[in-house]
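Worked example 2:
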Amino acid sequence: MADSKHHPAQRKQDKPGALANFPYDRMTVERFREAFPRARWSDERRSWFVPGKTAARRVDRWLAREAELVAVHGDSRGRDAYAFDPISSPYLEVADDLRIRTPYSKTVLQELRAIPWASWDDELRAWRVPFRSYEELRRRWPRIEKAARRSEPEERKRRRAAERDSEAQRITRLRYAERRRHRYPLLAKDLPPLGRAVATEQYGIVVFTELSGELVEPSALPAFYPHAVRADVDYVWGTWRSATLAELIKTWPARREAGPMEHSRGWWQPTLAELRVARRNARSIEHRRRNRNPSRMS
C-alpha cells in the first residue's frame, strides 16, 4: 500500500470528506467498499470520495490496517518461499526476520539498500530484511555473498599481496591520487552551474565550487575521464566537492535519465533514483560522523 494517499476534499455541494487513492486490486476494493459503503468513485479525480467530517481520520486508519495486512501476507509468502528454497550462508541468520552480517563492502551496501524494507540495526550490528522481501534478497544474494567473501580480511590480504606493485595497483594509486585533487575536466562551452548538485560519471553527485578558466592541456588529462576525449573542443578544470545531505535534499530531480549528450559533456541533472542513493549514502556518512564525534555534532 506504499502508493496509497488521501487528502481532504469537497465535492460540488461543498460536502466535507476525503479522497482515498490506492493501487487497484479487486479484494482491496471490496474491503474498502465494505468499510466505507457511502464512498463513491470520482472519474474526475481518479480517486474514491469518502464523505463525512471525520473521513480523513477514518481513511487514515483503514490505510494503516491495509498496509499491515499487506505486510503480514507478504511475510507469510516470504516464509513459504524461504522454506521451499532457503539461502544457506554464514552471512545470513534467520529469526523473526532475516539478518545479514558481512564484512564492509560497498557492493553489499548497494545491494541491501535496494531491497524494499531492508534496514540497518545499530544494536544488532546487522541488516534486517523482512520475509516479504525474501524474493528480492534471493535474487540479489549471489552478488551479496560474492562481495562479502571478497571483503573478508584474509581475502583482502591475499589480494593485496598478489596485486602489490602490479599494473592494477599502480592504476588504483593514480586514480586515488587524482580523486584527491578534486578537479574535473569540463567542456568549456557547456559548464555546470556553480554551487548546485550535479551528477558526474566518475565521482557521483558533486557540487562544483570553482572554474579555473584555464584550458586543460591534453597531456594533463589522465585516462580516468572517458568523457574528455574529444580533440576538437576545449576543456577547463573545475574544482568539486561532495554534495551535502542538505544540498541533496534541496536538489530538484530531472524528469528523465541523462542522454548521450549529457554523458559526453561529463555532468547532468540527477534523477530521483540517483538522488535517493546519494541521500542514503550521505545519511550514513553523517551517522558515522555523529557516532565518532558525538560532542562535535551536538
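The chain has three domains: 5-82, 85-150, 181-297. The two ends are 37 Å apart (CA to CA).
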